[in-house]
């Protein structure tokens, strides 16, 4: 299939996976625990999602220095390598901090994540697959010259630049992590070929303290960055309203050829590192929406990644199993029971294996091991057509973004 063919339900889809991805492990106590990936993969396998005729498994290669330089400065890559081999703190490049401590496999394990998303992007652009997911990816805080927020190499940015080099003229990146996708935005801030959209908890309340409506792109790319900074404690209805009131309108106007998405699930109400109130059901709905928009606006070309998410028992496996199933056109019913084999495995984990488990958020003291794939949440939201409520903090955030961004794309902030 050529890069301009129409999508077809019979086309293959891909999942990036290899057990070596579990080597991205800062420390036993660090919240970016490989347990989140291991349990996600086990849950995906327990639903037999990977055995389909049209499913392709991409074993992630370690990205070369040349490939990493698509998004990162050579001196930064050299600094990561030096830190990996010598364990030396490098404040200038964000290495050795509390967020990004140094460990011996730092360079290779981070480069493998980047290599996986890069390979997924190449497979989608070539037409080998229609969609692909790398739930180990989504390292959206890494900038061109520095690590940040648990992220060493920005796999999404590497993949986006590779797509541009392969001939893509317009790429949209949509980030629904609780935290602002600052690194990806910064790398493409002055590139009009890349539209970055981030819906996240306001930077007034949450790391990294950026992502406000007035961040709209550099002087050569005004209108290429969109940020909806919703208030803390926003739940499914508010977050979905914010997404639907901005994302499809901008995608329709921008007409991207490929959609790259970041699905951090730290927006869940039981996540310990953010203050949003989404459910697994709401996160699943976001994945459905982005799949639909990839079909509507990008001829089905979609590369999805994971991201944040620090409740490795109750939240991450379910959220990303749903994401993977949707990428594979085999959605899991929200009321489906979790296979007993997965529950038994989680129950059998020792205290040492659960070291670094961050699932004990205040709202999550009981029922840490789920038994169904949903939470019985009501994910209904008010569409923008219902009207703007000037007293609603979520609507205020939406309107701030629409007023800043929509005119650049020929859209009316009030009515489009």
From TrEMBL:
CDD domains attached to this UniProt entry: HDAC_AcuC_like
Chain ranges of the Histone deacetylase domain: 30-326
Keyword set, alphabetical order: Acetoin catabolism
Pathway: Ketone degradation; acetoin degradation
Pfam families attached to this UniProt entry: Hist_deacetyl
Domain of life: Bacteria
InterPro entries, per database record: AcuC, HDACs, His_deacetylse_dom, His_deacetylse_dom_sf, Ureohydrolase_dom_sf
Family the UniProt entry places it in: Belongs to the histone deacetylase family.
Full protein name: Acetoin utilization protein AcuC
């Amino acid at each position: 299939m050529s890069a301009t063919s129409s999508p077809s339900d019979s086309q293959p889809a891909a999942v990036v996976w290899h057990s070596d991805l579990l080597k991205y492990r800062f420390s036993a106590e660090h919240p970016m625990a490989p347990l989140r990936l291991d349990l996600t993969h086990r849950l995906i396998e327990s639903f037999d999602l990977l055995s389909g005729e049209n499913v392709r498994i991409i074993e992630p290669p370690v990205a070369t220095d040349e490939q990493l330089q698509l998004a990162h400065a050579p001196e930064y890559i050299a600094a990561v390598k030096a830190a990996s081999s010598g364990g030396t703190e490098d404040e200038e490049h964000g290495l050795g901090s509390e967020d990004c401590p140094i460990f011996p496999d730092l360079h290779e394990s981070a480069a493998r994540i980047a290599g996986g998303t890069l390979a997924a992007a190449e497979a989608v652009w070539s037409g080998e697959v229609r969609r692909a997911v790398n739930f180990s990816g989504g390292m959206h805080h890494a900038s061109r010259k520095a690590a940040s927020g648990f992220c060493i190499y920005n796999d999404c940015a590497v993949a986006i630049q590779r797509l541009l080099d392969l001939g893509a003229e317009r790429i949209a990146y949509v980030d629904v992590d609780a935290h602002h996708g600052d690194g990806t935005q910064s790398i493409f801030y002055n590139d009009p070929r890349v539209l970055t959209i981030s819906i996240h908890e306001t930077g007034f309340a949450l790391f990294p303290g950026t992502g406000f409506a007035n961040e709209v792109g550099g002087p050569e790319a005004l209108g290429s960055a969109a940020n909806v900074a919703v208030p803390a404690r926003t739940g499914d209805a508010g977050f979905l309203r914010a997404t639907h009131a901005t994302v499809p309108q901008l995608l329709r106007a921008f007409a991207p050829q490929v959609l790259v998405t970041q699905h951090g699930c730290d927006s869940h109400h039981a996540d310990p590192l953010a203050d949003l109130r989404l459910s697994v059901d709401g996160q699943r709905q976001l994945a459905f929406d982005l799949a639909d928009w990839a079909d509507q606006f990008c001829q089905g070309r979609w590369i999805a990644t994971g991201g944040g998410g620090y409740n490795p028992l109750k939240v991450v496996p379910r959220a990303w199993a749903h994401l993977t199933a949707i990428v594979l056109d085999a959605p899991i019913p929200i009321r489906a029971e979790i296979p007993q084999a997965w529950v038994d495995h989680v129950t059998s984990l020792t205290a040492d294996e659960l070291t670094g488990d961050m699932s004990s958020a205040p709202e999550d003291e009981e029922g840490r091991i789920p038994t169904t794939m949903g939470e019985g949440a009501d994910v209904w939201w008010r569409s923008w057509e219902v009207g703007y409520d000037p007293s609603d903090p979520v609507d205020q955030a939406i309107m701030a973004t629409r007023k800043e961004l929509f005119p650049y794309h020929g859209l009316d902030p009030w009515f489009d």
